[in-house]
Structure formats: structure tokens, C-alpha cells
Amino acid sequence: MASLQESLAAAETCLQAGDPKAALQHCKAALKEDRKSVEAFLLVGRAAHAIQEYKQAELAYRKALEVEPDSLPAWTGLARLYATTVNSTGAVESNEKVLSLLPEEDFSHTQHELWLAEAYYRTGRYAEAIRQYRQLAHKCGEQPEALPEGLLRCDMLCRLADIQLKLDEARAAEEVEARMAADAPGGDGPGRTVSTLHLEVLSEQAVADEAAAACGGGGDTGSCMQTLLELCSTAPLAERYVKYHEEWLKRCLLKIFSAPPRTVERQHFRLAALRECHTCMWKAATSALPYEAAVWLLEEEEEIKGGHIHFAGQVGSSGGLQEGGEGHLGGGQAVLFAFENFARRMVHQFPTNPTARVCLGLMLRRRACHDGTRPVPQALRRQLEALLRSAMEDESSCDCGTGWKALAELQYENRHYNEAYETGVRGLRWLHNRRERGHEALTHVALSLRLVVAKALRRIGRLDEAETHFKVLAGWVTEGEAAFGEMSGSAPVSIHQHALRGIAQVALERGDRPAAMAQYERILGKAALGRGPAEHWAHADYGWLLFQEGDTQGARQHLEDALRVATLACNVTDSQMAEHHYRLGEVYWRMRGRYRTERQFAYTQFFEAASVEGHAQAPAFAALGRYFQEVEHKAEQAMRCYKRALALDPSIATAGDHLCAMLVASGKTDTALTLCREIAARAPQARWAHRRCGYLLAAVERYEEGVTAFQAALKSDVHDASAWEGLASCYQNLGRFTAALKAYTRSLQLQPGRPYSRIQCGAIHMALGSPADAIGQYEAALSTAPAHPAALLGAAEALAASAAVHSRQGALGTAAGELSRAAAAALRCTAQHPTLHTAWKLLGDVLAAHHAVSPSPSLPTIPAPPLPAGQAGPDDAACFVDGQAAAWRRRVQAMHQARRAYAKALHLRPAQPGAWLDAAFCYHHEAQLLRAHPAVALGQGSSLKELAAAAERTVRAGLRLDAASAELWAALGTVAAELAAREYCLSRALQLDPKCVPAWVALARLYAEHGAGGPAAAALQHARSHEPAVPAIWEGMADVAALSATGGKECADYHEHAHGLGAGPAGLLGFAESAVRAGRALEGPVYAAAKKAAHMQPLNPAAHNVLGLASEARGDYPGAVASYRRALRLLLGAAHDPHAVLRHPPTAAASAGAPAALQTAVQLNLARALVGTGSGTAAGQLYEELEVTAELYNQPPAWLAFAAAKHAAGDLSGAAAALQSAAEPGTPARLLAEAVRAAVQLHCEAGRAAQALSHLEQQLPALRSAQVLHADMEGLWATAVAGAAAASDPWLLQQALAAAQAWAVEADDDSPAFQARLLGLQAAASLAAQQAQQAAAQYSRAVHVCPGSAQSRLGLAAAVLLRPGGGPHEAEAALRLLDSPAVAAAVARVERTMRMAPGGKPAPQAATETGTAAVLAARHCTPEQLRRRLSSAARCVHESPSNARLWRLAAITARKAAAMDDGDNEAAGTRAWRWCRAAEGAALSAVAAH
After folding, report:
1. pLDDT of 13-34, one tens digit each?
2. Looking at CB atoms within 10 Å, which of 269, 374, 879, 1267 has the fewest?
3. How far, in Å, CA of 1255 to CA of 660, rounded?
4. d(CA 1420, CA 1436)
């Protein structure tokens, strides 16, 4: 076995040989020899450390220390072990022990000091670590060889700086938390954000560190600023030291925020930081922070100094920023040059950095702009926009406010207005956040961004928001302040003036040109007062507005001033100058004369504008093309200029339109169409291309494609009135009238002064059947273009169509006025265009339309006739006939003038068959007018035969030109004289056109005139199969039905159907006549038809006769008398020429038993109407004349009327004789009953009630044999009983009642109504005898017998009210009777069916009187009942204004209603006062009458 020493030596040898495991075996052997061998434990520790058995090694070292506590090798081994295992606590313990045992001159002393410093740092003992690192750094500075191999002094400083930075960060966090606690709701300080507090704390620490470093202090931890300064000063160029350079730069930048903005101290810190940025660019070449910091520092310097930084040579002894010969900033150097140098180097070194890319975009824009004196090409602008947009997508990665300004301006210049607005808003938000972080406010950048935002808002149509922004800018910024932006490549601009310009442009967008001009005048006015110069664009824009207003002289002066100001200015671009030249050239062009023709004016200005690249270049080339085309007439040069303009800007409408027009004029329509389509595809914003393409397509009748083209044009500009007009034209040609009308309306809304749109709107309204709307459109067009022939002809045509409508409706006065206006318009057109065939033809049509309408006194071609010296009243028949004859002669004059107009049209186009047809019908209408009455033909040169022959000759002349015209053959069949010729011509017309309805109708009338009902009905059936809604067909069918003895009902139905379809005068007359014959004269449509027929045919006696019958049936006897007298006058005036009057079959008088002769029927009707008016004497004389002529025989209705006339004249015996004649055998039952009733009434009125009863009993056999109806017999007995009751003879009354009851039993008439009527008459007699109690009982029995009898209820109510001793209870009972539904229904029925009862008071009036009296007598009545009774009284006094009692009752009711009214007492009192005054007047009138 080896000894202890041998084992230790062997272990040492193994360790040195690199075999630690073998060394461990030897150490174990040594420890067996000596368990407390220190050397063995040390060797075990070394061997275990080598094989990474760290716990075994530590245990070995600890056991060695147990044996020898101050063993330096053991502590050294532990120090190495802890350094390897990173055991900070053990490292501190072991290294401190080693350093206490190890001499300072030992070489390993420094290593242990380094391990100790690192252990201090890891255990959080930062003060000891800092002190240890400082000692090491100081020691390394004096003895560099003392450091371990590979370790430099800079490393010591780096580790020291890391600790100090960590401590500073911890202190800053604690300070921020403390201040946040102070700013909490319970604290005293103001609330701030965490970022603001953090920046404030860091800046204060930076200043404090700098102060501590300056005085050499810093406390236990020392000054971080001093460490960073020493490190940055001595560290070599290496990547590992970059972060310390950045930290040093950040400390320099943080010092800026310690001073308030816009102070000298802050400026001093900013310049110092800028120098450090320049230094860091060299020493920390791989960091972008110095460049980014330099960018925003230079932006702030530009904001503060206006673009220049003056250092006054205070840059340090080494030259500071002059180092390296860069010359970025020196005395008087511009910020722009410093930014250029920094940015150029940053882009070269960091090409992907967002800030570097922004700087690159700014440099490229600035170089392209050439200091703002040359325009930037559009392609380059778009590239710059794309570069800046991609670089600034992430707001947090870019720190350049100028980039937002440049990007927004580029987007606005590139017409990306929405993107410009969004960029401006983002930039303003970014600037706000930047200012909140403590930076200087970039006011000029913010103003520029806000200006771009406002302009973009205006461009995208948000005018209200844009105006708000412009007004804010105009209020914020002073007049002389200018926003500069050299770094962004922008020229300085006056924000105030641009804001005013924006306000003006917003006003222009809204159409408020005066407001816009006021803003420009404000700018120019301030300049005139010396409050700052007006920029060139102010003169230019104002001059352009004057040009648009038509003030060419003012526009010329201002545009020349704009050029003068722009020439003197240094920041005007050549594109702006070119725009001024172009505008001035347009002004010269409009001034015409030498300004247009001489080259020194318009041509020179256009040439100057065209020679400069910019947005005015293309319009200038277009203007040059116009000059060559219109002045020098050089088509080739003009086309080249137009093509050049379109190549520069395809949206120039002037160039496109003129070029296409020249191509079309040269026969190259397809080329023009291809050009438009290519430009539309290449430049969608060129709306002229779509519009011109639409015009070209419409010209070749490709309307569907034209619609597509115009819609494409409107997609780019919905305010293009021309495009809307073209679209409407295509719709119109496609038959889509509603869509066309909407499009024309939209065009007129955009430009009201477009005559074509107005005219076409009128044409569409005419096509849609609305002549009134068409008239409005044509008149509006004439107000814009008074001499426009299409507008004049359209207005005349629309007026004529409207007149035709009003003529059919019977509004002849309105129709005459419209025809007068139409003739005036046609005459104006013929005066201005005497060779226009359409104008003469339309004039003839207008004048020919007077065949149905009497000419208006205002008709320009026919002067109004002089008024007669003494005019009679309106009912004078002679005056009426003379006046109508004069008006009819004026119609004939209109036909003469229409013939002359048609002759003019024939002279212009003699080969047109339609003109011959018009002239023929003019002859035909004139003949029809002359046939109306002999008085019309007085003084006329042509006879009826001559006119008919001329009409036939004219039609035959038209047939020679067009023998296959069905219309001409039908016209010849209408005007031919011979019947055979008429039939042949109509048949020929139907061969050519079997659907010619007028020919079928004319043929049917021809057959009907000669009694051939079968062929006529067949012809009408054919016509109805083609067009069943033609009124003439149904009028003809009525005429055919009238040929049959049993066709009366069918005739009436056909006339009614024709009237419903809008029949003419003959149809109206037929309908009215048939309806009167059927007993429907009371119906409103019947009276209206009769009135219109008499109005439209004033010389037709049959029309006046039917109107008289309708008026008589409605109770209008004076009107009936006037109509009958007019008819009689017309008949008497034409007695010598029975074929001259347009007679109608007088079957309307059949109900009156009139003879066949119309004159006799009219005389009988007149006599009957005179009886109704109370003119019994005149009626009697007329009847006596008829009796002398034996016209009354076998006419019971006439005898009845004769009796009524005698009775009205007081000749009762004559009346009785007439009634006796009316009751002769053979009289119809109804008339016989009427004759007997009238005779009974005569006896009763004469006081011979007994004779009346006896006469009725004598006539009973005759009445029974005539089979008179029970209802008529009940009326006869009621009349007789009423007469007996009126005689106040109870015995006679009982005899009459007994006779009536006997008749009822004999006739088996058990009608409750008849029994109630008899009881009512008996009660009325009792009431007249002042026996109200008995009357009430009798009325009660009547109501019991027939509960539905309204008359019995009314009588019972009256009897109850008149009963002596009656009180409010009786009045309330009477009121309940009157309010019953039966009485209300009966009263309403009476109101609907009759106006006045045959005798006594009407039921409504009686009910109103009784009800009003009951309301007044009742104890309890409501205001509603009073108002209802007052309303009923108002209706009754309107029907019977002479009823003084009813007036008095109504006045009392109104007074009581006013007293009970809780609402408007003043109004109720006024109403009651008016009723009282009216009742007083009625009472006075009644007294005067008696």
C-alpha cells in the first residue's frame, strides 16, 4: 500500500494529466491514511469540480475548512466553484474571505474582485456592486495589465452602467407610483396620465444625473450619466456598446422635456441633443435612434425658427456638428440642408426603417418640386404617395410629423380625397398625442393638415363640415401668418387666405355665387386697404367668377393682375401661371373681335398655358384647337390640338366634343364612336366620352346602347344635365315615357333653361294624354327661347288638344281662349318661318277647330264684333238667337281662314294627300255651320251646294295623289253628294282598311238614314268589334234602334253608354232626351247632358226643348220658360227653310202628349212652364191659341195644364171646363185621376166641399172602369176628406170619412197608411177647432194604426205641444217623438225625393218647426239637441226663407244655445245676435207682404 504522500502526489499527477476520476481514487486512498488531510480534501474538491460533481466538491472544500478555517486554497476553490455554479451567496462569502487572505499584489486578486462584484449584483447588493466595479474600473485605468485576459475597462463600465440603469428604472417606477397616488381622487395634485408622469420623472432624473456628474457626486450608486459619458467616450466601435450610446442619447433627449416648451432653456437642450445625435451617428452606427431623434428635433427647429437654426459658433472646442466636414448645421445654415444630410445617410444605412422611408419620400418630393417652382408629374406623385402610405401604415413606428402633411397633400393632389381626409385626421390625432407626450406643438404642420382635411371634405361633398373647418382656420390664424413646410416639399401658404378661399368654394358648391364673390372681395379688399398682399389665386379666382357672371372686362383686369402678382412672387409654380394664362385666354376669346382673331391676345395666352406641364395644359390645347378651327380654319392643326388635349387629359369635354363633331362632319362616325369608347374605357372619369357615345348611338337609332352610355356618364357625374337629357331622349325613342319624363325633369332641375328638355317634356305629356301639363312645359320653353319654332308649334298643338278636351266637356269659353292662344302661337311661328309647312298646317287645324267652338274675342285673326246699341236681358230669346247667329258667323270666318292656311300648306307641299284632306274637311265643316240656321248664311258668299262640291273636288284631288288611302276614301264617302257614290267610297275605304271605324260608322248612318236597319246594325257590329269604346258607334246603334217600334229601351241604353264614353253634342242630346222620356229628368247627369247639349248646339231648338223639360222637372220654371222660348224663336226664325235647322226628333214631348211637330211640342211645353212660374194669363193665351188651331184635342196633359193656367188666372169656370175635357173617355188612368183630383180641389177652394165629395162619387164608375190604382184613389179620397175637414162641418167630415171607408171596404183596401191618413185628417180638423186634446187622441190612434207614419207622429207632437195645460213633460215627449228614427228617415226621404209638397208645408219644414218648439218648451235639453235643431232650422229657412215663424223659433233656439254654451261664449253670442237680426228682418218682410 502506498503512503499518504505518494497518494497525494499520484492524485496531483492525474489532475495535471486530465484524469480527475483517477485522481479521486488516489485521494480516497490518501484519506484512508489520514481522514483530516487538508491536501487530500483540496484534491478531492478539484477533481469533483473537474467532473462536474459540484456538491462533492463543495463538501470537500468545506471539510478542508473544518480542519483549517483560514485555508486560502480551500476558499479559492470555493470561489471558483461558486463562480461556476452561479451561487451568489456562496460567491460573496468565499470571495470576501479570499480577498481578506490574499495579498493585493497577487495576480488573482483582480479576478476575485470581479467575482465579488458580480455576486453583489446578483444578490441585489447594488451599492457594493457599484463600488466594487468602480474600484475595478479605476484600477484597470491605472494598471490595465491587472485585468484578466480578454477583459477591458469598457466591460467594467458596461456592467456598472447596467446596474445604474436598472436602479434608475426602479427609482423612476417608484416615483411614478408615488405621484400617481398623489394624483388619486384622495390626493392633492392634478390628475395626469402614466406616460406623462413617467416622462416627467425621467427628464428630472436626467437633469439630476447631469448635475451630479458635474459636481462629481452621485451618492453610493454614483451618476449614471457620468458612467455613460465615460463609456461612450472610451468605448470602441462595436455592436455591444450601441445600447449604451442609445441610453446616453435618450438621457440627452429627456433633458429637453425638463424645460417648458418655447423657452430658451429648452432650445439649448434641443441643440445639445442634436449634437449628440450627430455624434451617435458615428459611434453607434447600427442604431437608427440618432437619425429618428434628429428628424423630430429638426421638425421642432423648423417650427420654432421658421426653417433656420443659428448656433452662433457655440458648438464646442472640437467644432461639434462640424465634425467630419458634413456642415449640417452651422451659422445660418438651413434646417432643410441638415435634414437632407441626416435623411440621406439614414436611408442609405436603414432602408427598411419607416422613418427612413418617410424621409426618402420627402426628399424625392422636394427634388421633384424643385423648391415648388415646377409641377410634379402625376405618375411620380402616385409613386410618392404609395411610398409614404406604406411607410406610415403603423403610426407608432414613424416619428415624422412632416410625413403626415406630405402624404395628405399628395393624396389630395392625386384626387384621392377620401384617403386625404383620413390621413389628415390620423395626422392630427398623431400630433395631438405627440404634444400630450411633452413635445413641441407642430402648429404649422397641424394647420396644413387641417387645411387639407377641410379641402378634402369639400371635395367629397361634406360641405357643412368643410365650411366649419374653413371658418375655424380663418378665425384661428392671423392674416399675415404663413404655414411653411420646406421639409415636406411644400411652399409657404397663407392659411387665413386659403381658409377664406375654401369658404368661397363651399359657397360655389352650394350655388351661392354672391357669397363666394363676397369672400374673394374680402380678401382683395383687405389687400386694397394695405392689410397684407392678396395672393395671385385670389385675383385669378375672382376674375374667373366675374367671367362666369358675364363681366369680361372685370375678369380681364383681375386675371391680368393675377399674372402680374404671380410674376413678382417667388413661390408661384409654373402650373399656376399656366392656369392664369389659360383663364385670361378664355376671357379674351369671349371678348371676340380682335381679342379673338389677333394672335397676341387669346392665342398667346393659350400657347403659354399649353407649353407648361400641369392641369391647365390639356384645356389650353383644347382652346388652341378651337382657335385653329374657328379663326384660322385649319382643320388638321385643330384636330392635332384636340388629340393632344385628350392625350394629356381624356376628361376635357371641349376637345372631345369638337373632335367628334369634326369626325362626324367628315363622314367618320364609326371612328368617332370608336374614339369615345376607347377613351371611356381608358379614363372612366371622362364623362363626355360616355355622353358623346350616347349621342352618336342615338343618331344611328341604337337607343338601348345609348341608354347604357348615358348611364355610364351619369355614374361619374349625376349633375350632368346634358347626360340626363340624352338619356331621356333615348328613353323617349324606346317608348319608355315615364322614365324619359323623370330624366328630362332631372335635367331641368339641374339647368332650368334647357328648351329642348322643356319641349320634349311637353311632347311626352301630349303622348300621355295630359295637354295641360304639356302647355306648361311649352310655355316655360318659350319663356327661355321665345322664337323657338318647336316650342311655338308644340304650345299651339297642346292648346288645341286641351281645347278639344274642354269642348267635349262643354267648357266652350275655356276652349275658345285656348284656341285663341294656339292661333297666336301658330301665327308667330308662320311669321318667323313662312316656309314651314307644319306651321301653316297647324294654324289651319287650330282655326278649323272653331267649327265646334265660337271664336274668342281675343282671337288675333278674327276681330270681335261690335256690341249692339241696346242689349236686352239675358232671357230675351231674340237677342239670344241674334247673338248666337253672330257667333256662328264668326265660326264660318274661322273656317275661311283655315282654308287659307291649308292653301298655304298645299302651296308648300302640293303632293301631300293629307293637306288636300284637311282642306276638304274645312269646306265640309263650313257647310255644316251654314246649315245650322238661316241667319248664319246671311252675307255669306258661298252656298251649301258650292261648299259641298268644293269639298268633294278637294278630296278627289287628294285621291289622285294616293288612291290607296282608306282615309281619303272614307272622307269622300262623307262629303260626296250622290248616295251611290257615298256608299261606294265607304265600301272602298273598308276594302283598303277593314278596321277603319269612321268608315263603318258613316256607312251605318247612311243605311240608317234610308231605313235599312239590318245593314246598318251589321256595319256597326263590325266597327264595335274593332274599337268598342268609340262613342260614335253607340250613337249610331241608338239611331238604328230608334228605327224599330220596340227599340226605345235599347235606344236609351245605347245613348247612355255613349254618354259614359264621352259622346259629342248629338250623343248628349240623345241621352238627355231618352232619360227625360224615361222619367229620369231629376237626375243630375241628365240635366248636365241637356245643359251641355244646348250650350254646344245653341242653334238647335231640340236641344233647348230638352233642356227646358229637364229644368221643368227640377222645379226651375223660369229656366224652362227661357229654354222653350229660345227653341220657339229658333223654330219661328227658320220657318221659311225647314231644312236649315239641325232638328232632333221631338219624342221628348211624348210624355206630355204633344203632336209630332216640334213647334207645337215646344209651345205646349212653354205654356205648361208658364203655369209653373205663376204666369197664368200668358199661359192661358197660349193655350187658347193652341185650342183655336185644334192642337189640344186628344191631349189630356195639355188640358190639365190649360186648367192650371185658368186657375192661376182666376178663371175657375174655365179651369173646370178644361178639367172636364181632360177627363173625357179614353183618358189614361193616371191622367184621369189627376183631372178628378184637380176638380175636387177646385170645389174645395171655392168652399163647395159637399160638391167636391159629390163630384168624386160621380166619377167613381169612370175611375173604376179606367182601373185607377189604389194609391191614386187613396189620394183622391184624402183630398176630399181634407176639403171636408177644412169646411169645419163635422157632419160633412163624417160623411166623407164614411164614404172613404166604404170605398176601402168595397175595393178591399186595408192599407194601414190610408187609415192613418184619414185619422190624421180628422185630427187636423180637431186641432183647427182648438180641440188639441181630441186631436192628440186621434193622432195617437193614427200612430197606433200605422207606427211608421211620420206625418202622424209630427201631428201628434204638434197636438201635444198645443194641448192646454201642457208643461215641460209634454214638450219632452214631443221631442222624443220627433227624434225617433222613423221621423228622421221619413224626413230624409222627403228631402231626397221632393223639394216642395203639393199643398201645405213640406215634411222637413213641419218637423223642424215642431221639433224646435218642443226643444224650447222642454225642461231638460242638452246643448247638442239645441245645436242639432238650430242646424235643421238653418236648412229649412234656406228652403223657405219667407217662413217668419221658423225664423223666430230659430232665433230663440240660438239665444238659448248661447246661454247654455260653456265653450266660446263670444262666438255663440254673435251667432244668436245674427239669428235675431235675421228673424226681425223676416218678420218685417211678412208684415209688409200682408
Report:
1. 888 888 888 888 888 888 787 8
2. 1267
3. 105
4. 24
